[in-house]
């Protein structure tokens, strides 16, 4: 999703076309921000799964000893 934007800026730099609007710097940080977001989502999903698993196991243990 972000790669085409980065490729466009690489092509502009290849032909030494620059713009002083600050967007090139923003594009540089998009990939890093995207990677961080994906990591956070992955951790969140993992934590949700673990909480669900713990709830299921605790119900099983409690019901097993009742």
Q: How would you characterize this protein structure?
A:
The protein is mostly helical and 66 residues long. The protein has one domain (3-65). Helices cover 83% and strands 0% of the residues. The chain has 2 helices and no strands. It has helices at residues 3-14, 23-65. Helix 1 packs antiparallel against helix 2. The relative contact order is 0.08. The mean pLDDT is 77.
Task: Describe this protein with a few key phrases.
66 residues; mainly alpha; 2 helices; rod-shaped
What's a concise summary of this model?
This protein has 66 residues and is mainly α. Helix content is 83%, strand content 0%.
Strand content: under 5%
Assembly type of the shown chains? single chain
Shape: rod-shaped
Order of helices and strands: HH
Specify the structural class: mainly alpha
- Low-pLDDT stretches are none
So how many helices? 2
Mean pLDDT level: 77
Helix residue percentage: over 70%
**How many structural domains in the coordinates?**
1
| Cα gyration radius (Å) | 23 Å
Q: Can you count the beta strands?
A: 0
Distance between the termini: 52 Å
Largest sheet: none
Please outline the helices and strands.
Blueprint: H1 3-14, H2 23-65
Helix pairs in contact: 1-2
């Amino acid at each position: 999703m972000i790669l085409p934007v980065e490729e466009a800026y690489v092509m502009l730099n290849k032909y030494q076309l620059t713009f002083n609007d600050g967007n090139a710097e923003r594009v540089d940080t998009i990939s890093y921000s995207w990677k961080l977001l994906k990591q956070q989502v992955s951790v969140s999903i993992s934590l949700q799964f673990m909480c669900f698993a713990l709830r299921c196991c605790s119900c099983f243990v409690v019901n097993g000893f009742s």
